[in-house]
Amino acid sequence: MPRNFRAEIEAAEKELEAIKSELRGIRQHFLLATTEFVRQWYRQQAETFVKHNHELTKKLEGEKLSQLKADLAKLENDTSTAISEYLDVDELWWQAKEVEQGYGAWAPDLDKPVRLAVGRLAIILEKYGYLASEGSGVWREWDKSRSYHPPGARPYYPYSLDWSQSMIDSMKGYRELCSKAFRVTQTIGRLKQEKGSSEAEELWRKA
């Protein structure tokens, strides 16, 4: 009985689509986990600056300090917008971009987008004098050589940043599924090659 390559290919393609569906789910879970992480991070970092720079905080008492808290609350409320802008981008995610090489080692490079999202706090810290807007220690993205901050550089958190466990676990699962997708994709390619060879052989035999 001749081998049914078409059925095998269809089964493998169905498996690949199921993996892509799982990857889309992990993407959404990561975005939700990151939104919660960033929202809490804003509050924790702002409070750290306020407490550490107590002399400045005392000068801001009253209306300015209340306005700072209002600005912080607005930033927290807009967290999902920041996450959507920096992280909910198809170019960052395999199942949307479908990078064809290196599936097994491929994973989203999300470090910079996360740093851009948390870096938005810099705008408030600079506004009230807790953070310099130029010179050393500024929260701005670097040029490609990481030697200077180009004009119009976006707010960017440059220091150590520990992701939440939920974010870490999501990325681990994503990488594992990418590896699985790689193996299935290799299988599809091999089956298509074998199907083509078999068809060519049959044509040659009948000629």
What does this molecule look like?
With 207 residues, the protein is mainly α. It has one domain. 67% of the residues lie in helices and 0% in strands. The two termini are 21 Å apart.
Summarize it.
Helices cover 67% and strands 0% of the residues. It is an all-alpha fold.
Key attributes of the depicted protein:
67% helix, 0% strand, mainly alpha, 207 residues
Proportion of beta-strand residues: under 5%
Order of helices and strands: HHHHHHHH
Q: Note the main sheet.
A: none
Number of helices: 8
The rough form would be described as elongated
Mean pLDDT: 90
Low-pLDDT residue spans: 101-105
Fraction of helical residues = 55-70%
- Cα-based radius of gyration, to the nearest Å: 25 Å
What is the structural class? Answer: mainly alpha
How many strands in all?
0
The domain count comes to 1
Query: What's the N-to-C terminus distance?
Result: 21 Å
Q: What is the element layout, followed by pairings?
A:
Blueprint: H1 5-52, H2 54-59, H3 63-77, H4 79-86, H5 94-97, H6 111-118, H7 121-127, H8 165-206
Helix pairs in contact: 1-3, 1-4, 1-8, 4-6
